[in-house]
């Protein structure tokens, strides 16, 4: 039987398949189901910077409200009703109970933010609660057209450094593909302390309803074809950066996991497939991966990783150009009129 074991963020995983942040990772029952289906690790749903800032502002408002209630007010702080537990407290409690339900499967906490602020200090509470690692999802879409590309990149590095200063557990950064030089950005983040990179985040793209004349916010589940972009960059970065590489987006079948591993991914994350088919589908994905390894006579995931990555000694730019030209030539043959 092939060995599916891998290492991600310094964590030893029984499988390269990771359940990424999503609806299933919002409850201990979901954690238990994913662990039972042999997921290598579980990424908890994201806690957002805006939520933490709003909660902090609410707490300060309550303190101000009660500050002059009594002469002894300097030692008085309002006691929140037990039924009104704060959002951060609920997240921490779900993390603790989820870790217990995961029964040894590593649990990775997730923070989503786009600015520098005291919210990053919450990362230490996640570490104290037992998170094996932290995934930092930097969702930054600058609406101010005067912001330069370098300012956007600097913001990413500053957020990472703030979180790294707050914790002593591994930190992965979930990146978007919208940088002018993804390779250089990836290197900057690794140099700033990123223990891993997750490629790529999916920005929400709203739809326009031409009948109601309204903009509709939508979240669509990914499809297999969307894996081509992250695979391209994982193949280009494999062997060039001293960090873990995780793939996300476009995982529908075990074949998609294989493709990512061949490109050089250390781990492969799935959300959409598990939403479509349930947590137990992780077991089927692992089985499909195992069946492929047996059929191709590979004895482990490690033997496959990076076999089709861009060779480290190759000119990566020329390599990509050659692939681009070859694809165009093939398209001419395929779609040219008879």
Automatic annotation (TrEMBL):
Q: Which domain of life is it from?
A: Bacteria
Q: Does the record bear Nucleotide-binding in its keywords?
A: no
**Which UniProt keyword terms apply here?**
Flavoprotein, FMN, Oxidoreductase, Pyrimidine biosynthesis
Database matches in Gene3D superfamilies = Aldolase class I (3.20.20.70)
**Pathway annotation:** Pyrimidine metabolism; UMP biosynthesis via de novo pathway
Q: Which cofactor does it need?
A: FMN
Chain ranges of the Dihydroorotate dehydrogenase catalytic domain = 90-292
Q: Which residues form the signal peptide?
A: none
Please name the Pfam families in this protein's record: DHO_dh
**Per its UniProt record, what PANTHER family does this chain match?**
DIHYDROOROTATE DEHYDROGENASE (QUINONE), MITOCHONDRIAL-RELATED, SLL0744 PROTEIN
NCBIfam families hit by this protein: PRK07565.1 (NF005741)
Record's protein name: Dihydroorotate dehydrogenase-like protein
Upper taxonomic classification of the species?
A: Bacteria, Bacillati, Actinomycetota, Actinomycetes, Propionibacteriales
